[in-house]
Amino acid sequence: MSDTTGATGASPRLTAVAQTAMLVAAARLAEARRKNPVLTDELLEAMIGSSAEVIAAVRQCVQETQQQERDDGVDHVASFTSVRMKFGDCQLQHFRASHDTFQIVILGAGLDTRPWRLDLGSGVSVYDIDQPDMTNFKKDRLSAVDAQLQMDKKNHRFPLRIGGWKGVPLDLTGPWLPGLLQSGLSTDVPSVWVAEGLFYYMDQEAGSALLRTMASASTPDSMLIMTHLNHALFTASQRFIADREFPTDEKIKTFYSSWKSGMPEDVSGYLASNGWRVESQQLMSEIHKEYGVTLARWKNTTEMRRKYEPELGTLDYWVVVASPKPVVT
Ligand SMILES: C[S@@+](CC[C@H](N)C(=O)[O-])C[C@H]1O[C@@H](n2cnc3c(N)ncnc32)[C@H](O)[C@@H]1O
């Protein structure tokens, strides 16, 4: 089995967008290594914990959050992506309480490890969709650490805790549904669609098409969990890139340039026009409060917030739970 992280720990076969999955994974590992973490993830630790690049990113992330805690005088500045993941875990467990048999489709799955972490039972199958480079990288890493990939009777270091898992290499801005159906998804079984940290890497037209396709393949009792930049954050990030007032920080400008869209201001109207009824919409900052942790505000957003928040409102992320809109006949 090839080790795609290579000797230096870099991941040369991953595209820039797929690399963002490594960044959020590093943030989750940093959180897992802190006192009283929001989330621990032994499999993730094993999968990428040996990568020099990720270890360096984790170390930096831990140091930054510790420093921020000292500066702000708070006990716990939890990693954003761990709270996001924990929120999704809770929604899935809640859905499981009323459904024995369902499918979970994780779109832009990156290094999500839920099939090995969440005990949802044998009636649940999971489809991980990501770009081919990330899907192949993940399969390699899973095999390398002896995570179970299919239902067999062998003893694995990380057994599947659901009924079946498939990594499906697809581009979600293209015609992806036929490929997913071919992989086994049934349109007669309830689905929970999970899209965390994905929508802003596609333009609004592609995002809207994605929402409509998911709705078209859903039973009435299916569910969608999605996150997106709020309108203020997306608008501010794009102004910031072009704003001569700010010194050029190529890294952060490149990062914001990879964002292609944000959630329109009318969240429920936008979702409704693409086949979904909003059940709940919360800002990430509110969810952090629910989990009793203080949200880490990136230091490099301080200036951006100072300049744009008075006009645009709070720069934040939406977390939306929705159900398919009933079809009127
Ligand atoms: C920021 S990462 C989030 C990963 C994961 N959901 C998590 O929260 O850890 C974004 C992921 O979306 C994937 N992605 C972005 N655009 C995509 C597309 N058009 N088709 C499939 N996957 C895509 C990237 O490859 C990457 O793995």
UniProtKB/TrEMBL annotation:
GO term, biological process aspect, one: methylation
Family affiliation: Belongs to the UPF0677 family.
Matches recorded under SUPFAM superfamilies: S-adenosyl-L-methionine-dependent methyltransferases (SSF53335)
A single MF term (Gene Ontology): methyltransferase activity
Tagged with keyword rRNA-binding: no
Species this protein is from: Coccomyxa viridis
Keyword Membrane: no
Pfam families (alphabetical): LCM
Keywords of this entry: Methyltransferase, Transferase
Transmembrane feature ranges: none
Protein name per UniProt: S-adenosyl-L-methionine-dependent methyltransferase
